[in-house]
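User: Hello, can you help with two protein structures?

Assistant: Certainly.
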Amino acid sequence: MKPSLSTLLLSAALALFSGGACAEQADRNKPMNVEADALRYDDAKKTSVFTGRVVLTKGSILIRGARIEVRQDPDGNQYGVVTAEPGKLASFRQKREGLDEFIEGQGESIEYDSRANTVKFIRQAQLRRYLGATMNDEMSGNVIVYNNSTDVFTIDGGVAQGAPSATGGRVRAMLTPKPDAAAATPPAPAASAPAAALRATTTLDGEKK
C-alpha cells in the first residue's frame, strides 16, 4: 500500500522535528532506580511490579505512573510497562544529547524497551519538545513511538483500529520553525557621528562683543 500524502508530509515534519540531535545516549547504560508504595518481585520471571505513585529514573529519563512492571532479559536489557491511574496519564521525560532540550510525552500507558531503545505512548498519546523551559513542538495521536537512538517519531491517529482518541482519530502536530540565524542576531548599532568640536568666537548672534 502506497503511503498517503499526509503520511509523507508528517514524515517530513518529523525529520524537521528531530533537528539532527539524539536523545541522551548515556541513559541506556545507566542504572534504573524506582520509588513506589509497594513492590512485588518474581525472581523466576525476573520481573518487578511497582505500584502506587511510581517514579522511575534512568540517567536523564524520568517516568511517572500508577504501576510499572519491569522485566530484565539474560543480556541485561530492561523492559518497562507503565500504567496511569484511571482518568490520568503516565509521563515520560528525557534530555536530548548535547542540547538544552527535553522530550516529554504522556499516554494512558507507556512501554520502554532498552534493547530497541524505544518508548511507546499508547492512547491519548502526546509528545512535546522543550527548548529549556519553553515548549517548541507538540504532537498528539492514538499511539506514538519514539526511537531514542535516531530521534525518529511515528504517530498513529487510530482511525484504522477504530480506537477512541482525544484527537478524533487524527494526528495533530504543532511545529515551530527554527529562528533564522541572521534574523536572530541583532544588528550592530550604527556608528555615531563625532561630536562637533567647540570653538571660540568673538561674536554673539552675529554681532561683535
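That covers the first. Now for the second protein you mentioned:
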Amino acid sequence: MELEGKVSLVTGASRGIGRAIALKLASLGAMVAVNYVEIEPSNRDDAGEVVQSIVDAGGKAMPVEADIRNSDAVKAMVEQVAEKWGRIDILVNNAGINKDTLLLRMSDDDWDAVIETNLKGAFLCTKHAVRHMMKQQWGRVISISSVVGRVGNAGQCNYAASKGGIIAFTKSVAREMGSRNITVNAIAPGFIVTDMTNRLPQETRDGLLSLIPLARLGQPEDVAELVAFLASEKAGYITGQVITIDGGAFP
C-alpha cells in the first residue's frame, strides 16, 4: 500500500486507460477522484461503476463530473476533491478525444475540440491542482501523451499537436515545480487496446501489430503500472521526462 493516504485525481477515468489507472492507484491505497464529463449518458454510469469497484475492494473513491475545457468547472472539481479529502497529491491528466481526418478536410471545430480537451484540459487541471501541491511541498503530475505526439501520424494533425503540446508543457512545468518537490512527467503510449483501437478494421489492427516487436497491442494496465510507479516515492528523482510505452514500435 505504498500510496496509502495519498489523494489522486484521474481525468477521463470512466473507461479505458483512465479506468485502469484509477483502479491501480486505489489498489495501492490512494483515494481516487474519478473524473468524467456527462457528454454521453453512459459516462456517469461508467464512472459510478469504477467508484463502486474501488469501494467494493476496500478503497476510497468518489465521482467528480467536470468539463476539463472549462476553467471554472476544473477549479470547482479540484476544490471539491480537496475539501473532501484535505489535499491533492497526484494528478493524472488522462482525458482526451480524437477527431481524425486529413488536414485539408479538417474543420476549425475539429481542431479546436481536440486542442481544447487534450491540451487546454491538461493545462487547466495542472494549474489548479498544483496550487494544493505547492502548499504541501509534494506532488505528482502525470500526463498521458502519445507516441503520435513524438512521431506524428497522417490524419491526426490535431491529435498529434495536442499530444506533442503535452510533452512540451510537461518539460516546462517540471522546471517550474522542481523546487517545490513536485515531479511532472508524461507517458507516451503506443497502440493500446481501447474503444479507439477496437473501432479499427481488423486489417488496420494487423498492420499495427506488424510494427510492434513484442507482437501485441498494449493493455490499459500496462500504462497504469507505469503511472503507479511515477506516482510513488520510488520515482522521486524523475521529472520532466516522457516515457514511451509501445512494445518497441517507436524506439
